[in-house]
Amino acid sequence: MREKTIMKGQILSNRAIHRSVYRMEIQVEQKQMFSNYQPGQFVNLYLGERDLLLPRPFSICDYRDGVVVLIIQMVGEGTYRLSAKAMGEWVTLSSPLGNGFSIPRGKSVQVVGGGCGVAPLLGLSKKLTENGCEVTAFLGYGQDAFMVEEFLPTCKNVNIASQEGKVGYGGTVLDMWKNHADHKDVNQIFACGPAAMLQQLSQYAMKRGIPLEVSLEERMGCGYGACLGCGVWIGDSSPILKKVCWDGPVFDGGKVLWNYEA
Amino acid sequence: MKPNLEIMMNGQWWKNPVTTGSGTFSLEHSGAFYDVTRLGAATTKGVSWVPWPGNPMPRIAETYGGMLNSIGLQNNGVEEFVRGELVNLKNMGLPVVVNVVGKSREEYEKVVAYLNETEADILEINLSCPNVREGGMAFGISPKETYEITTALRKRTQKPLYIKLSPNVTNIVEIATKAEEGGADGLTMINTLLGMRIDVNTRKPVLGNIMGGLSGPCIKPVAVRMVYQVSRAVEIPIIGGGGIYAGEDAAEFIMAGAKAVFVGSAALMDPRAPIRIIEELENFMSGKGYENIDELRGSKHKK
């Protein structure tokens, strides 16, 4: 049985890094629960309010010495309230949930992120680099880029795309990835972003025979496997309904049945 | 002095009156957050005769003070459940309430007959899931069908038979009375209230299944009212719940007439909720000088 817990954390900083995107640093109370953190795992943030009761799941962007970094995009009332939290305030959060990306040793790898999907790829890039991998990042944004400066020191190459063409390549991260010189020597790809992007990237990667892991997003209830709210069909001949929160959120991109309905 | 929270449920002692709400508990997942043997009993996710895939995503939508779900009774069938979850829970010494779902009377009968030969302690018949067209709701909203299916299932098991009631009816007392007449040993109430949300930006329903079941603290007054009405009309015990989020909520249901209580969606909103609520109930009782659960029962009301 995997041991999980709920704990308090104190906000060290919470600042806008884009119009609607916040970067929140939390000093957690039980850092031993984070000692086995794998990039790609997420935490539940509990709002502690009487009206919005479900937790908000956020992938762990980075973790070091008891400090968790989360990237929070304002998409509704709950995330709006989180954006308003100030330094010194306390929040309630879970220990790391779900399963992270695999960490190969000494390989040539790519991380491909779209929008806030770049968040877990930062901690992942650091871990991969620590394990002797050469990491090339492809980061795509709607308008302005964010977090690029954090990827630069840990990646061999960082390629930026913006759909409005404000920075880097003008277009989607997928277009940029397709137009990139070649992907011959790539051993593995790790990706996070909108489902349509992940689906297409999975198809391209499979055509080229490159293994790919994707981190999926689905509307969750509990975030720990109890409610069966967040399902994804996985497999080939006999599809199995997996739980994004407990069995994922990272899955083999080649095995996700993107538009399957039972 | 520490109050005594024990209750006797159909010939079996529960160490406290708190069980889980069907579909919000599993040994693997809930057990990752707390010691499940502290529960009065464990109520498991609805099991059907054959595996069901459930409804399309999204299956969850938040509402003020609650949530909508349209999971659709996804489960791997009774056989796998008995081999895995049930054996594991019984090995821990927990009373187990097994929730049963079906699409026809025959299916319910098969599952009940199958569970009769197991270590399950109470069979809780879900006649009220609003999320599956044939998920029992058709039975649970008709007094006649409720009576007929209860008598049919009564013949299939000697185990305590509970009927889980739907709040989506005009007169819940009538349905409850029919379940009792049909031979039910108890009632669980309430299931979720049928609800819906539309995303005004996309103009589409938020849930993949369009409609879903509303649960959480926002439904508690409805649930308390229904437990209150039904407990005055039947002799059989009630496992009451619907929006229990704190120990005082549990006390409120017992005062309304419930023998035991279930904690459902609160466990999704706080994984340790069932245990926290047991502790809060105990603290509430010692603070008020209640020595046992029986002293809590009943409310001071005007007829």
Notable characteristics:
heterodimer; A: 262 residues; alpha/beta; Elongation Factor Tu (Ef-tu), domain 3; Rossmann fold; 3 domains; 6-stranded antiparallel β-barrel; 5 helices; B: 303 residues; TIM Barrel; 8-stranded parallel sheet
Describe the protein's topology:
The complex is a heterodimer of chains A (262) and B (303).
Chain A: E1 6-18, E2 21-28, E3 42-46, E4 56-64, E5 67-73, H1 77-83, E6 90-94, E7 108-114, H2 119-130, E8 134-141, H3 148-151, E9 157-162, E10 169-170, H4 173-179, E11 188-192, H5 195-207, E12 212-215, E13 231-234, E14 240-243, E15 250-252
Parallel strand pairs in A: 7-8, 7-11, 8-9, 9-10, 11-12
Antiparallel strand pairs in A: 1-2, 1-6, 2-5, 3-4, 3-6, 4-5, 12-15, 13-14
Chain B: E1 7-9, E2 12-14, E3 18-20, H1 27-30, E4 42-47, E5 60-63, E6 66-69, H2 78-91, E7 96-100, H3 105-116, E8 122-126, H4 137-140, H5 143-154, E9 161-164, H6 172-181, E10 186-189, E11 193-196, E12 198-199, E13 204-205, E14 211-215, H7 220-231, E15 238-240, H8 247-256, E16 260-263, H9 266-269, H10 273-288, H11 293-296
Helix pairs in contact in B: 5-6, 7-8, 8-10
